[in-house]
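Sharing a chain and its predicted structure for anyone who wants a worked example. Both blocks are below, sequence first, tokens second.
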Amino acid sequence: MNYTEIELPCKGNTVLVGMSGGVDSTLSAVLLKEKGCRVIGVTMSLWKGDLPLLPDGKKLHSSCYGPDESVDIEECSAFCKEQGIEYHVIDVKEQYQKEVLDYFKAEYRAGRTPNPCIRCNRFIKFGALLDGAMKMGIDFDFFCTGHYARLLRPSEGIWGSGKRPLMIASATDTTKDQAYFLYRIPSEVLEKVRFPLAGLEKKDVFRMARERHLAAAERPESQDFIPEEYFDLLFSDRPSVPGDIIDLDGHILGKHRGIEHYTIGQRRGLGVSSNRPLYVYSIDAEKNLVVLADDTELETASLIADDWVWPAGIEPDTDFDALVKIRLASRPVNAHIERYVIPDGENYTGNPYRLTFEKPQRAVAPGQSAVVYLDGVIAGGGIIARSIK
């Protein structure tokens, strides 16, 4: 299928720019201003202040959730004042608690491995933030962020529908590509979204920022969500329930400290002694078990994913082959995608699909996202429900 690249905002457009204080969003705002756009900066306020600070005075300034949020806001405010850019802080604390933090904890406690960034993009960054701006009476033509991804429009209708929605594609800089994180954003929202850095490489972003003497060019890269050190504090609202660690034959190997502290494929921090490396093979939330196995046992022939998102909500009209990513850091692999016929006793959200890999994949984790690509363009994505060994 052929695609048309979507043009960026032009002179005279009013653009809302989501700002974090980092180099990507800061340069995006400057580039749009240089084009003659009227730029309005907005920052999400997420931190509720209901968690204790980390010991030893550890700072979380490079994380998107933490007590140092006020520093980010101060830096964004100072930058916008210097540039003559209108600036607002949008309070989305309650929505973030419900849609991201509560979801994150519930998924881990159910033995799954969630991706909070995907959830945040769908419901907060491209949801509650925009709703909050509109409620404040802020009118804009486009919403721009510093994400590394492209927006394309197919030249013909997808899946024979005649509809040509905007679709997310991999960025020019594949080492920084963030398309995977964005796959759940609804097509109607994407119509007003633009990514000014889509055609740039990260090294060029830093160079352009330094040429413009932007302080953000010297700031450390932000981390996703929060560091591991904060996990125990995040889960401190409820005591962990210890249980058995077993092997595939049911032999008890040790005790775990609560299933929320483990994920599929994990090797370190298991607390068991063995004469060979062992990895988390599965997590049984109902029986409160963590199951370990050899690395070779972690290979998966196929998976079932549900809760799918398709461009414009249009599902495929036939089985098809595509490239699939089962986590952000994984390389796309060939797979066959087909509708899954649900047997009695199995329950899913929406219409599940079965993805059968050309070559077995390691450590497929329920709760993560399986994202499908055709010619580098996201054709859909769903949440992994289970793997088939």
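Comments welcome. Residues 335 and 357 are 4 Å apart (CA to CA).
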